[in-house]
Specification:
Structural class: alpha/beta
Strand order of the largest sheet: 1-2-3-5-4-6-7
Helix content: 25-40%
Order of helices and strands: EEEEHHEHEHEHHH
Shape: elongated
Strand content: 15-25%
């Protein structure tokens, strides 16, 4: 088991007579300055189909949120059952922006995602590595596109709901200065989606 990972919580409960597995796992990662709780939802058929692999969906919450927020909005278990997805909701630690902060050495969410969380999910759940999707809201919309842009080979597609894609107009909001630093040109070049995808547009 990854030495930076500790699984703290495990829930199994019954809903409408069917066994539904939900897991909340707490990751203690060297890339983050505090633990990250991740909520995973598996379809109702997951325990019955011992060999079946399922598509995987990461849902990233918005600024100021946490790992619970997607389930409060849409009922993730219902969606996992209806569409046959494994759904993973990590905690963006309120305002991480899902990036490696250039000014906070222990706020390296991109590294946590790809080096700790992503391989753990692939190794511990029956998911189809060729059907991995990622989406998010607001800060999470930025995070979904950003993470796919950094490793497009790992995802089938990405979606963004009201994602913040340009930082300049919001540099004094949403803790951007604290997470990205004061150098506007630097974080525009490194973290804005248009730059990450390489279209060169401002």
């Amino acid at each position: 088991m990854n030495r930076f990972l500790q699984i703290c919580l495990f829930f199994i409960f019954f809903v409408s007579g069917q066994l539904i597995a939900q897991q909340q796992q707490v990751f203690h990662s060297k890339y983050l300055n505090r633990p990250d709780t991740v909520w995973t939802f598996t379809p109702a058929t997951y325990s019955e189909a011992s060999q079946q692999e399922y598509p995987l969906l990461y849902l990233l919450h918005g600024w100021g949120g946490n790992f619970r927020h997607w389930d409060l909005m849409i009922d993730c278990q219902e969606y996992a059952d209806r569409y046959g997805f494994v759904i993973v909701c990590p905690d963006g630690l309120y305002d991480s922006w899902y990036i490696n902060s250039p000014v906070q050495g222990e706020n390296q969410f991109e590294d946590f995602f790809f080096k700790d969380l992503f391989p753990f999910v692939i190794d511990h759940y029956r998911v189809d590595a060729d059907e991995v999707f990622i989406s998010g809201l607001s800060m999470g919309g930025h995070g979904a596109l950003y993470l796919m842009a950094k490793h497009p080979e790992k995802f089938t597609s990405a979606g963004s709901l009201s994602g913040l894609l340009k930082f300049q107009a919001w540099q004094n909001h949403y803790a951007l200065e604290r997470v990205l630093g004061l150098d506007e040109r630097k974080y525009h070049r490194r973290f804005c989606i248009s730059k990450v995808f390489g279209d060169g547009q401002d």
